[in-house]
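Late entry, written up from scratch paper. The run itself happened at the end of the previous shift, but nothing got recorded in the book at the time, so transcribing now.
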Amino acid sequence: MALAQTWSVALVGLEGHLVEVEADIAQGLPKTTLIGLPDASLSEARDRVRAAVVNSGERFPDRKVTIGLSPATLPKTGSHYDVAIALALLSAAGVIDAKSLRQTAIIGELGLDGRIREVRGALAMTLAAARSSFERIVVPELNSGEARLVPGIEVYGVRSLRQVLALLRGTEIPDEAPPRAEPRLLSESLTRVPEVDLDDVIGQHEGRRAIEAAAAGGHHLFLHGPPGSGKTMLAERLAGLMPDLSTDDSLEVSAVHSLAGLLTNDAELVVRPPFIAPHHTASLSSLVGGGSGMPRPGAISCAHRGILFIDEAPEMHPLTLDTLRQPLESGYIEVHRSAAVAKFPARFMLVLAANPCPCGMSGAGNAICNCTPQVLARYRQRISGPIKDRLDIQRQILPAARGVADREVSESTAAVAERVKAARDRQAYRYRETGWILNSEVPGPVLRREFPLNAASHELLEDLYTAGRLTARGFDRVVRVAWTLADLQGLDQPTVALTHEAFQLRAGEPLTDLSDTRPLKGIPA
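Output as recorded:
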């Protein structure tokens, strides 16, 4: 009897689990058995491995072969175990020295001719191997770019099983034809970051103020107004106002994109906040993640640490839109499937854009709206109250007046981004001992207890709450926006004027320049 082992990685969501691949060759009729809760694609590895070994010039054992994947209680899915299974089998047969496989993790799918094909999630698997103190990892050559993004582990990118065997034996590595990348199942336009500048937007002072505050504090944003008023223009320029991701965030975002199949073959870390703009007809599973068996990340996880922009939001199915409630609060999404429960990060900025009615003309100055009151009410109810209550900033965007373009010079993205970065630096310093980074992330009770508003600002919000113009959740969100406005102005605490502006940003009221001496009592309901 001969026994050998290798190591691979199983992914449950973004969490990697080391899997021990054991191969046992015993006396008996030729048969290959695979155990350890494999799915259908993994069960087919028996035939892929047999053909790849033979076509690589090696001899497949003509005895009873048992392949075990441990831990046996963890469901295994995918074809990336193929190379690890083949090497464990050849090591048990004495073809290669078992010592050469120590401290080495192995991933890759085998073709019938011995070629090694790319797999999804190589970055997350490499991260798991590095955290488990593995010294080396063998990956398909097409995945080597993303695997090398992980520090502290040596990466070997290979094209075929023959190259792996030569590498382990210490012989000359044979030359192989360059691998051909598989077609991406998701369009790369999904993660495009628009290369546009804020100085393209003429007028829209309130809209510009809204996206600046949203970028500075990470606040969710709702823009509504007639067609052609500039909602999409403002939303697309929001990504350019945000600073680069930190190293830890870059690795996490890149790992999600690797698992979703969005990283290119010459992979680099995702350093800019992603801008994800799914169509309003997107299905529920494409938005939150899912799939049969082992779940995959959806659009909200691909937008982690970036922006999820949904244009024409009322046209999206209300049930699909309402699934965003939990991740908007928690910053993650749990996808439950029969094989496993996967947890994906989903701390994104939600930006919704909507017309005021089906024809788009309601409330648009002198324009004539042809929608009946019933149609208008039904259209506006397609974005539910609980979703709107979670949106920190809500602004009506009206078309700019004619002639504005001739009189006005708008600020550029670079100028506004500099203020946004300074405001974020102030937040990072203020919350340096708490684990939070942005105002939008700090829980309401902590914000009220550790970073209270002054008495006048607190009294203003209490009056608004008593008048029924703020919910309990809205109270906390106005406080967060008020702190962001103070950070943008370099103040140590929000003034009553900034607190009122924060309420106006949330309530969609026209912005006014208020002084701290404004009366606080008698606020109209």
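The first strand starts at residue 2 and ends at 12.
(Scratch paper discarded after transcription.)
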